[in-house]
Amino acid sequence: MSTATNPHEKPRTPTAAELDEMTPDQVATLAANLDDVVVVKNTPKFPISGTRAERRAERAVATWFVISALSGLAFLGVYLFWPFEYVAPDQPGYFVYTLYTPLIGLLLGLAVLSLGVAVITYVKKFFPDEVSVQQRHDGPSDEVARRTVVAQLVKAGQDTTIARRSLIKRSAGAAAGVLGLGVGVAAVAPLIHNPWKGRDDADLWVTPWRSINGEKVYLRRDTGDPSEISLVRPEDQEAGSMETVFPFRESERGDEEALHAALRRSDAPVMLIRLRPGTPVVHREGQEDYHYGDFYAFSKICTHLGCPTSLYEQQTQRILCPCHQSQFLATEYGKPIFGPAARPLPQLPITVDEDGYFIARGDFNEPIGPGFWEWPGFWNRGRS
Predict the structure, then answer these.
(1) What share of the chain is helix, strand, coil (3-state, %, to 5)?
(2) Left (φ > 0), alpha (ψ -120 to 50) or beta: where does 369 sit?
(3) CA distance 344 to 336
């Protein structure tokens, strides 16, 4: 066995046979000496095990681990089962809906915080008070140093008494397991919903402007009251102006849930633009009859990242997305002329019915918003 008479003297490197004969404590001491570390003081927090103070400290640590585990379980329950669908302020269940985001944030934060407090509390209450001095030295670690690191870790575990504290180990394992499960569920849950369910009727292919069983889909404005139906006529809009409109079906009249849904769906808003008479227009191939007179309807969802293209400049006929400054030309089928957007805004085919109200002649002939790989036109975006 290799020892040093002077604590500041570098010990002789022992052979493999000598290392095998040494006890774990001796190897740990050798590791400190090889690293030029002098342990000045190492005082255990509880020299006598089983005291009331020790058990009280152990229960305190375990309590924080249990709080973390319970918070993680509560987070999972809220994340998976709490009502998260939008509810309007004047509808039953609105207060419960508003609690969803605060609750998942509060519970996940409490789980992580409690886990951190438990670890810090354990370190403060059970790690021995140690003062060590190490001399700095350069160079890679040799074989002996690498082997003695394991002994140091074993001794550290013995000094912190974690091996014999089953209550803390079980509570810590429960907290870490639940927290890890919560993070995993949060990461995987958005992938469970299949956007292609329904094939041709999948969410990414259709919008609320699609006619169901041949029923008319009117253009209505949002007055602030979903139950107040205000349909749009050509004479309601001045030349050079833009108005945001939403879909409406007579079968939905009086159906508060359906009326709310039509106004809150992200793929519903459409810009109805009335160009000035005589304005030259370039039509997209196959969409020459999508307009009605000087009226053109474009999706309000930017084809870059889905922001609302809510600005219209009537002098230049440019539609502007304020998020990333993409600009689309209303007189050229919503073609992007500036910014990161790569394809035109989808155009809604419109006409006027026998009562003089605007109606949609059908749904958009392409998906709205940003492109996606499964869309056949994704790889040709920006070429039209």
Answers:
(1) 40, 15, 45
(2) left
(3) 6
Q: Which of 137, 260, 283, 324 is catalytic?
A: 324
**Which amino acid does the sequence have at 348?**
L
**The one catalytic residue among 137, 193, 291, 304:** 304
- In the DSSP assignment, the letter for residue 96 is H
Closest CA to 279 of 329, 345, 234: 329
**Pair 368, 336: CB distance under 8 Å:** no
Q: How far apart are CA 257 and CA 46, in angstroms?
A: 64
Burial of 154 (0-12, 13-18, 19+ CB in 10 A): middle
Q: Where are the beta strands (DSSP E) in the chain?
A: 37-43, 129-134, 218-221, 230-231, 241-248, 270-274, 295-299, 311-313, 318-320, 327-329, 335-338, 347-348, 350-352, 358-360
Of 285, 367, 363, 370, the C-alpha closest to 326 is: 370
Q: What does 168-186 look like in DSSP terms, one character per residue?
A: HHHHHHHHHHHHHHHHHHH
- In three state form, how does the secondary structure of 7-70 look? CCCCCCCCCHHHHHHCCHHHHHHHHHHHCCEEEEEEECCCCCCCCHHHHHHHHHHHHHHHHHHH
Q: Which residue type is seen at 98?
A: T
SS3 237: coil
Based on the residue annotation, tell me whether 8 is a catalytic residue of this protein.
Answer: no
Nearest-angstrom CA–CA distance, 14 and 21? 11
Q: Is 324 a catalytic residue?
A: yes
- Give pLDDT tens digits for 166-215: 888 788 888 888 878 877 777 776 666 666 665 666 677 889 999 888 89
Tens digits of residue pLDDT in 88-125? 677 788 899 999 999 999 999 999 999 999 999 999 99
**CA pair distance 348, 269, nearest whole angstrom:** 11
The whole-model pTM stands at 0.57
Q: What is the pLDDT of residues 31-82, one digit of tens each?
A: 888 777 888 888 888 888 889 999 999 999 999 999 999 999 999 999 889 9
